[in-house]
Specification:
Structural class: alpha/beta
Order of helices and strands: HHHEHEHEHEHEHEEHHHEHEHEEHEH
CATH class of the largest domain: Alpha Beta
Mean pLDDT: 96
Strand order of the largest sheet: 1-7-6-5-4-2-3
Number of domains: 2
Largest sheet: 7 strands, mixed
Shape: globular
Strand content: 5-15%
Radius of gyration: 22 Å
CATH superfamily of the largest domain: Type I PLP-dependent aspartate aminotransferase-like (Major domain)
Low-confidence stretches: none
Bound molecules: pyridoxal-5'-phosphate
CATH topology of the largest domain: Aspartate Aminotransferase, domain 2
Number of strands: 12
Distance between the termini: 53 Å
Length: 392
Protein backbone atom coordinates (compact mmCIF):
# COMPACT_ATOMS: atom_id res chain seq x y z
CA UNK A 1 0.00 0.00 0.00
CA UNK A 2 3.09 2.23 0.20
CA UNK A 3 2.26 3.97 -3.06
CA UNK A 4 -0.56 5.85 -1.31
CA UNK A 5 -0.14 8.83 0.99
CA UNK A 6 0.15 8.25 4.73
CA UNK A 7 -3.27 9.79 5.41
CA UNK A 8 -4.83 7.18 3.14
CA UNK A 9 -2.74 4.28 4.45
CA UNK A 10 -3.81 5.11 8.01
CA UNK A 11 -7.39 4.38 7.04
CA UNK A 12 -7.29 1.43 4.68
CA UNK A 13 -6.89 -2.16 5.83
CA UNK A 14 -4.72 -5.08 4.82
CA UNK A 15 -7.08 -7.94 5.56
CA UNK A 16 -9.07 -9.68 2.84
CA UNK A 17 -12.64 -8.41 3.23
CA UNK A 18 -13.99 -11.25 1.11
CA UNK A 19 -12.95 -13.73 3.79
CA UNK A 20 -14.82 -11.72 6.42
CA UNK A 21 -18.32 -11.23 5.00
CA UNK A 22 -17.23 -7.92 3.46
CA UNK A 23 -16.62 -6.40 6.90
CA UNK A 24 -15.50 -2.81 6.38
CA UNK A 25 -13.35 -2.71 9.53
CA UNK A 26 -10.90 -5.35 10.76
CA UNK A 27 -12.69 -8.07 12.74
CA UNK A 28 -11.79 -8.53 16.39
CA UNK A 29 -10.50 -12.07 17.03
CA UNK A 30 -10.96 -12.13 20.79
CA UNK A 31 -9.62 -15.64 21.23
CA UNK A 32 -6.77 -17.11 23.21
CA UNK A 33 -6.17 -20.11 20.99
CA UNK A 34 -6.89 -21.59 17.55
CA UNK A 35 -8.21 -25.06 16.82
CA UNK A 36 -6.44 -27.42 14.45
CA UNK A 37 -8.36 -29.57 11.98
CA UNK A 38 -6.39 -32.59 13.12
CA UNK A 39 -3.25 -33.67 14.96
CA UNK A 40 -1.15 -33.51 11.81
CA UNK A 41 -2.10 -29.90 11.18
CA UNK A 42 -1.11 -29.02 14.76
CA UNK A 43 2.22 -30.74 14.22
CA UNK A 44 2.79 -28.94 10.91
CA UNK A 45 2.02 -25.54 12.45
CA UNK A 46 4.41 -26.07 15.34
CA UNK A 47 7.09 -27.31 12.96
CA UNK A 48 6.61 -24.18 10.85
CA UNK A 49 5.73 -26.24 7.75
CA UNK A 50 2.29 -24.70 7.58
CA UNK A 51 1.49 -21.08 8.24
CA UNK A 52 -1.46 -20.33 10.47
CA UNK A 53 -2.31 -19.26 13.97
CA UNK A 54 -1.62 -21.43 17.02
CA UNK A 55 -2.08 -19.43 20.21
CA UNK A 56 -2.58 -15.68 20.64
CA UNK A 57 0.69 -15.06 22.45
CA UNK A 58 2.38 -16.20 19.23
CA UNK A 59 0.08 -14.35 16.87
CA UNK A 60 -3.52 -13.30 16.33
CA UNK A 61 -5.20 -12.00 13.14
CA UNK A 62 -6.30 -8.69 14.71
CA UNK A 63 -2.79 -8.15 16.05
CA UNK A 64 -1.29 -9.08 12.65
CA UNK A 65 -3.41 -6.41 11.01
CA UNK A 66 -1.99 -3.82 13.44
CA UNK A 67 1.58 -5.08 13.00
CA UNK A 68 1.33 -4.86 9.23
CA UNK A 69 -0.16 -1.41 9.51
CA UNK A 70 2.57 0.04 11.74
CA UNK A 71 5.29 -1.49 9.53
CA UNK A 72 3.65 0.17 6.53
CA UNK A 73 3.30 3.55 8.29
CA UNK A 74 6.93 3.59 9.45
CA UNK A 75 8.03 2.14 6.10
CA UNK A 76 9.90 -0.72 7.73
CA UNK A 77 9.93 -4.42 6.92
CA UNK A 78 8.18 -5.85 9.94
CA UNK A 79 6.18 -4.68 12.96
CA UNK A 80 5.36 -6.09 16.37
CA UNK A 81 2.73 -5.09 18.92
CA UNK A 82 3.20 -5.21 22.71
CA UNK A 83 1.10 -4.81 25.81
CA UNK A 84 2.81 -1.50 26.64
CA UNK A 85 5.35 0.95 25.30
CA UNK A 86 7.78 -0.38 27.90
CA UNK A 87 7.05 -3.88 26.61
CA UNK A 88 8.28 -2.72 23.20
CA UNK A 89 11.28 -0.80 24.60
CA UNK A 90 12.40 -3.65 26.86
CA UNK A 91 11.90 -6.38 24.23
CA UNK A 92 13.99 -4.43 21.71
CA UNK A 93 16.76 -3.51 24.17
CA UNK A 94 16.94 -7.03 25.63
CA UNK A 95 17.15 -8.53 22.14
CA UNK A 96 20.03 -6.20 21.23
CA UNK A 97 22.29 -6.63 24.24
CA UNK A 98 24.57 -9.19 25.82
CA UNK A 99 26.49 -8.98 29.08
CA UNK A 100 29.46 -6.66 28.67
CA UNK A 101 27.84 -4.48 26.00
CA UNK A 102 27.56 -0.72 26.15
CA UNK A 103 24.74 1.59 25.04
CA UNK A 104 24.62 5.29 24.24
CA UNK A 105 21.39 6.89 25.39
CA UNK A 106 20.06 10.34 24.67
CA UNK A 107 19.90 12.41 27.85
CA UNK A 108 16.42 12.79 29.28
CA UNK A 109 14.92 9.51 28.11
CA UNK A 110 11.59 8.34 29.44
CA UNK A 111 11.81 7.59 33.18
CA UNK A 112 11.02 3.87 32.92
CA UNK A 113 13.47 3.44 30.03
CA UNK A 114 16.08 4.90 32.38
CA UNK A 115 14.88 2.49 35.06
CA UNK A 116 15.25 -0.44 32.65
CA UNK A 117 18.80 0.65 31.77
CA UNK A 118 19.70 0.81 35.45
CA UNK A 119 18.26 -2.68 35.87
CA UNK A 120 20.20 -4.26 33.00
CA UNK A 121 23.32 -2.49 34.20
CA UNK A 122 22.97 -3.98 37.67
CA UNK A 123 21.77 -7.42 36.69
CA UNK A 124 23.45 -8.05 33.34
CA UNK A 125 26.46 -5.71 33.38
CA UNK A 126 25.38 -3.72 30.35
CA UNK A 127 26.86 -0.27 30.77
CA UNK A 128 25.39 2.91 29.32
CA UNK A 129 26.17 6.57 28.95
CA UNK A 130 23.49 9.21 29.03
CA UNK A 131 24.61 11.97 26.73
CA UNK A 132 23.34 15.07 25.10
CA UNK A 133 23.54 14.26 21.42
CA UNK A 134 23.88 17.77 20.06
CA UNK A 135 27.67 17.73 20.04
CA UNK A 136 28.52 15.00 17.61
CA UNK A 137 32.29 15.03 18.26
CA UNK A 138 31.69 14.54 22.00
CA UNK A 139 29.33 11.75 21.15
CA UNK A 140 31.78 10.00 18.88
CA UNK A 141 34.33 9.97 21.69
CA UNK A 142 31.87 8.06 23.86
CA UNK A 143 31.63 5.19 21.39
CA UNK A 144 33.44 2.12 22.68
CA UNK A 145 34.35 -1.10 20.84
CA UNK A 146 31.51 -2.78 22.74
CA UNK A 147 28.89 -0.12 21.99
CA UNK A 148 25.95 -2.08 20.61
CA UNK A 149 23.31 0.55 20.04
CA UNK A 150 22.46 4.22 20.20
CA UNK A 151 19.04 4.82 21.69
CA UNK A 152 17.34 8.13 20.93
CA UNK A 153 14.20 9.94 21.90
CA UNK A 154 13.37 13.01 19.85
CA UNK A 155 11.92 15.36 20.85
CA UNK A 156 12.87 14.46 24.39
CA UNK A 157 10.37 14.63 27.19
CA UNK A 158 9.90 17.20 28.75
CA UNK A 159 12.73 19.45 27.57
CA UNK A 160 11.80 19.09 23.87
CA UNK A 161 15.44 18.79 22.91
CA UNK A 162 15.81 17.24 19.49
CA UNK A 163 18.36 14.75 18.27
CA UNK A 164 19.45 14.91 14.64
CA UNK A 165 18.59 11.38 13.53
CA UNK A 166 20.49 11.52 10.22
CA UNK A 167 23.74 12.69 11.85
CA UNK A 168 23.54 10.01 14.54
CA UNK A 169 22.87 7.37 11.89
CA UNK A 170 25.95 8.55 9.94
CA UNK A 171 28.13 8.07 13.04
CA UNK A 172 26.59 4.72 13.93
CA UNK A 173 27.11 3.37 10.40
CA UNK A 174 30.88 3.79 10.73
CA UNK A 175 30.97 1.28 13.59
CA UNK A 176 28.09 -1.05 12.77
CA UNK A 177 26.05 0.22 15.72
CA UNK A 178 22.26 -0.05 15.66
CA UNK A 179 20.17 3.09 16.03
CA UNK A 180 16.88 2.80 17.92
CA UNK A 181 14.44 5.71 17.98
CA UNK A 182 11.54 6.10 20.40
CA UNK A 183 9.10 7.92 18.12
CA UNK A 184 6.28 8.25 20.66
CA UNK A 185 6.20 12.05 20.68
CA UNK A 186 5.79 12.34 16.93
CA UNK A 187 3.96 9.24 15.71
CA UNK A 188 4.73 8.17 12.14
CA UNK A 189 2.66 11.08 10.90
CA UNK A 190 5.17 13.69 12.10
CA UNK A 191 8.44 11.76 11.85
CA UNK A 192 9.65 8.58 10.16
CA UNK A 193 13.03 7.62 11.66
CA UNK A 194 13.54 4.55 9.46
CA UNK A 195 13.43 6.76 6.38
CA UNK A 196 16.22 8.79 7.98
CA UNK A 197 18.31 5.63 8.35
CA UNK A 198 17.47 4.38 11.86
CA UNK A 199 17.29 0.60 12.33
CA UNK A 200 14.45 0.22 14.79
CA UNK A 201 11.53 2.40 15.84
CA UNK A 202 9.60 1.93 19.07
CA UNK A 203 6.39 3.57 20.21
CA UNK A 204 4.30 3.90 23.26
CA UNK A 205 1.07 3.45 21.30
CA UNK A 206 -0.68 4.53 24.50
CA UNK A 207 -0.07 8.10 23.38
CA UNK A 208 -0.85 9.61 19.95
CA UNK A 209 -1.33 6.30 18.11
CA UNK A 210 -4.15 5.17 20.41
CA UNK A 211 -5.06 8.79 20.91
CA UNK A 212 -8.13 8.32 23.07
CA UNK A 213 -6.68 7.61 26.51
CA UNK A 214 -8.19 4.14 26.71
CA UNK A 215 -5.37 1.71 26.01
CA UNK A 216 -1.82 0.92 27.13
CA UNK A 217 0.19 -0.56 24.25
CA UNK A 218 3.50 -0.53 22.42
CA UNK A 219 4.78 -1.04 18.87
CA UNK A 220 8.14 -1.68 17.26
CA UNK A 221 9.27 -1.77 13.63
CA UNK A 222 12.55 -2.95 12.13
CA UNK A 223 14.08 -5.43 9.72
CA UNK A 224 12.31 -8.76 9.29
CA UNK A 225 15.26 -10.67 10.75
CA UNK A 226 15.54 -8.56 13.88
CA UNK A 227 11.81 -8.40 14.50
CA UNK A 228 11.53 -12.16 14.04
CA UNK A 229 14.22 -12.60 16.68
CA UNK A 230 12.30 -10.31 19.06
CA UNK A 231 9.05 -12.12 18.30
CA UNK A 232 10.53 -15.52 19.12
CA UNK A 233 12.53 -14.49 22.21
CA UNK A 234 12.03 -11.30 24.19
CA UNK A 235 8.39 -11.09 23.17
CA UNK A 236 7.19 -14.72 23.11
CA UNK A 237 9.18 -15.91 26.12
CA UNK A 238 9.12 -12.73 28.19
CA UNK A 239 5.50 -12.29 27.26
CA UNK A 240 4.58 -8.67 26.63
CA UNK A 241 1.93 -9.36 24.03
CA UNK A 242 -0.98 -7.08 23.20
CA UNK A 243 -4.55 -8.24 23.68
CA UNK A 244 -6.62 -8.51 20.49
CA UNK A 245 -9.07 -5.92 21.82
CA UNK A 246 -6.31 -3.39 22.49
CA UNK A 247 -4.93 -4.02 18.99
CA UNK A 248 -8.40 -3.38 17.63
CA UNK A 249 -8.65 -0.11 19.59
CA UNK A 250 -5.32 1.01 18.11
CA UNK A 251 -6.50 0.19 14.59
CA UNK A 252 -9.55 2.33 15.29
CA UNK A 253 -7.43 5.16 16.71
CA UNK A 254 -4.99 5.11 13.80
CA UNK A 255 -7.67 5.95 11.26
CA UNK A 256 -7.87 9.49 12.62
CA UNK A 257 -4.16 9.94 13.45
CA UNK A 258 -3.52 12.43 10.64
CA UNK A 259 -6.43 14.70 11.41
CA UNK A 260 -5.84 14.45 15.15
CA UNK A 261 -2.14 15.32 14.78
CA UNK A 262 -2.97 18.29 12.56
CA UNK A 263 -5.30 19.60 15.25
CA UNK A 264 -2.88 18.84 18.12
CA UNK A 265 -0.19 20.81 16.28
CA UNK A 266 -2.50 23.70 15.48
CA UNK A 267 -3.78 23.94 19.06
CA UNK A 268 -0.24 23.71 20.47
CA UNK A 269 0.91 26.57 18.24
CA UNK A 270 -2.01 28.67 19.46
CA UNK A 271 -1.29 27.90 23.13
CA UNK A 272 2.45 28.50 22.63
CA UNK A 273 1.77 31.97 21.28
CA UNK A 274 -0.48 32.79 24.21
CA UNK A 275 1.88 31.36 26.84
CA UNK A 276 4.88 33.16 25.40
CA UNK A 277 3.13 36.48 26.01
CA UNK A 278 2.06 35.72 29.59
CA UNK A 279 4.12 37.60 32.22
CA UNK A 280 4.18 34.71 34.71
CA UNK A 281 5.66 32.28 32.20
CA UNK A 282 9.43 32.64 32.56
CA UNK A 283 10.57 30.09 30.02
CA UNK A 284 8.90 28.06 27.34
CA UNK A 285 10.14 25.18 25.23
CA UNK A 286 8.35 24.27 22.06
CA UNK A 287 10.02 23.09 18.84
CA UNK A 288 7.68 25.36 16.86
CA UNK A 289 9.11 28.48 18.52
CA UNK A 290 11.14 30.25 15.79
CA UNK A 291 13.69 31.20 18.48
CA UNK A 292 13.94 27.57 19.72
CA UNK A 293 17.57 26.39 19.43
CA UNK A 294 16.73 23.52 17.16
CA UNK A 295 13.90 25.09 15.18
CA UNK A 296 15.67 24.37 11.89
CA UNK A 297 16.26 20.75 12.82
CA UNK A 298 12.61 20.40 13.83
CA UNK A 299 11.60 21.73 10.42
CA UNK A 300 14.01 19.37 8.71
CA UNK A 301 13.10 16.08 10.35
CA UNK A 302 9.52 16.61 11.50
CA UNK A 303 6.44 17.34 9.40
CA UNK A 304 5.10 19.66 12.11
CA UNK A 305 6.02 20.63 15.67
CA UNK A 306 3.82 18.33 17.73
CA UNK A 307 1.39 18.89 20.58
CA UNK A 308 3.71 19.17 23.57
CA UNK A 309 4.85 22.32 25.29
CA UNK A 310 6.90 22.68 28.45
CA UNK A 311 7.02 25.93 30.36
CA UNK A 312 8.31 27.34 33.62
CA UNK A 313 6.45 29.59 35.97
CA UNK A 314 7.89 32.00 38.48
CA UNK A 315 8.01 30.60 42.01
CA UNK A 316 9.32 27.03 41.86
CA UNK A 317 7.49 23.87 42.82
CA UNK A 318 4.74 25.51 44.88
CA UNK A 319 3.82 27.86 42.06
CA UNK A 320 3.84 25.02 39.52
CA UNK A 321 1.57 22.95 41.75
CA UNK A 322 -0.71 25.90 42.31
CA UNK A 323 -1.17 26.36 38.57
CA UNK A 324 -2.13 22.68 38.23
CA UNK A 325 -4.55 22.92 41.14
CA UNK A 326 -6.23 25.98 39.66
CA UNK A 327 -7.09 24.30 36.36
CA UNK A 328 -10.49 22.84 35.68
CA UNK A 329 -10.72 21.90 31.98
CA UNK A 330 -7.09 20.85 31.67
CA UNK A 331 -6.59 17.60 33.57
CA UNK A 332 -3.67 16.92 35.88
CA UNK A 333 -2.32 13.61 34.58
CA UNK A 334 0.76 12.02 33.09
CA UNK A 335 0.52 10.50 29.60
CA UNK A 336 0.07 12.57 26.47
CA UNK A 337 -1.49 12.54 23.05
CA UNK A 338 -5.06 12.24 24.26
CA UNK A 339 -8.06 14.24 23.12
CA UNK A 340 -8.09 15.91 26.55
CA UNK A 341 -5.42 18.50 27.36
CA UNK A 342 -3.21 17.12 30.15
CA UNK A 343 -0.67 18.79 32.40
CA UNK A 344 1.98 17.23 34.62
CA UNK A 345 4.95 18.21 36.79
CA UNK A 346 7.99 16.22 35.55
CA UNK A 347 10.19 16.79 38.63
CA UNK A 348 7.69 15.08 40.95
CA UNK A 349 5.95 12.82 38.43
CA UNK A 350 7.43 11.37 35.22
CA UNK A 351 11.05 12.14 36.13
CA UNK A 352 10.87 11.69 39.90
CA UNK A 353 13.05 8.55 39.63
CA UNK A 354 15.88 10.48 37.94
CA UNK A 355 18.40 11.78 40.52
CA UNK A 356 17.96 15.51 41.12
CA UNK A 357 21.43 16.37 39.86
CA UNK A 358 20.78 14.59 36.53
CA UNK A 359 17.36 16.18 36.35
CA UNK A 360 18.67 19.71 36.74
CA UNK A 361 21.40 19.02 34.18
CA UNK A 362 18.64 18.19 31.71
CA UNK A 363 16.73 21.37 32.54
CA UNK A 364 13.94 19.72 34.51
CA UNK A 365 13.52 22.29 37.25
CA UNK A 366 10.88 22.36 39.97
CA UNK A 367 9.14 25.17 38.06
CA UNK A 368 8.68 23.18 34.88
CA UNK A 369 5.26 22.04 33.72
CA UNK A 370 4.55 19.90 30.70
CA UNK A 371 1.41 20.35 28.72
CA UNK A 372 -0.01 17.85 26.23
CA UNK A 373 -2.31 20.04 24.19
CA UNK A 374 -5.53 18.21 23.35
CA UNK A 375 -8.18 18.54 20.70
CA UNK A 376 -10.57 20.92 22.45
CA UNK A 377 -11.33 24.38 21.14
CA UNK A 378 -8.00 26.19 21.68
CA UNK A 379 -9.72 29.27 23.15
CA UNK A 380 -11.20 27.10 25.89
CA UNK A 381 -7.82 25.55 26.67
CA UNK A 382 -6.21 28.99 26.90
CA UNK A 383 -9.04 30.40 28.98
CA UNK A 384 -8.44 27.68 31.60
CA UNK A 385 -4.65 28.11 31.56
CA UNK A 386 -4.81 31.89 31.72
CA UNK A 387 -7.21 31.76 34.63
CA UNK A 388 -4.91 29.36 36.54
CA UNK A 389 -1.84 31.48 35.82
CA UNK A 390 -3.54 34.67 36.90
CA UNK A 391 -4.71 33.19 40.19
CA UNK A 392 -1.35 32.58 41.77
C1 LIG B 1 4.83 6.67 27.71
C2 LIG B 1 6.14 6.51 27.09
C3 LIG B 1 6.81 5.27 27.10
C4 LIG B 1 6.25 4.06 27.83
O1 LIG B 1 5.06 3.63 27.26
P1 LIG B 1 3.92 2.84 28.08
O2 LIG B 1 2.89 2.59 27.04
O3 LIG B 1 3.47 3.70 29.20
O4 LIG B 1 4.56 1.57 28.59
C5 LIG B 1 8.02 5.18 26.46
N1 LIG B 1 8.58 6.25 25.83
C6 LIG B 1 7.97 7.45 25.81
C7 LIG B 1 8.62 8.59 25.12
C8 LIG B 1 6.74 7.63 26.44
O5 LIG B 1 6.15 8.82 26.42
Amino acid sequence: MSNKHLETRLIHSFFDRKKHFGSLTPPLYQTSTFTFENAEQGEARFAGRESGYIYSRLGNPTVTELEEKIADLEEGESGLAFSSGMGAVSAVIMALIETGDHLLISEGVYGCTYGLLELVKKKFKVDFDLISMDQLDVMEEKIRPNTKAIYIETPINPTMKLVDIESIVAIARKSDIKVVVDNTFCSPYLQQPLKLGADIVVHSATKYIGGHGDVIAGLAVGSSDFMQEVRMTTQKDVGSVISPFDAWLLLRGLKTLAIRMDRHCMNAMFIFEKLSRHPKVTNIVFPGDPSFDQYDLAKKQMRNFGGLISFEVEGGKLAAQKVMNNLSLVQVAVSLGDAETLIQHPATMTHAVVPEEERLKMGITASLLRLSVGLENPQDIWCDLEHALNLF
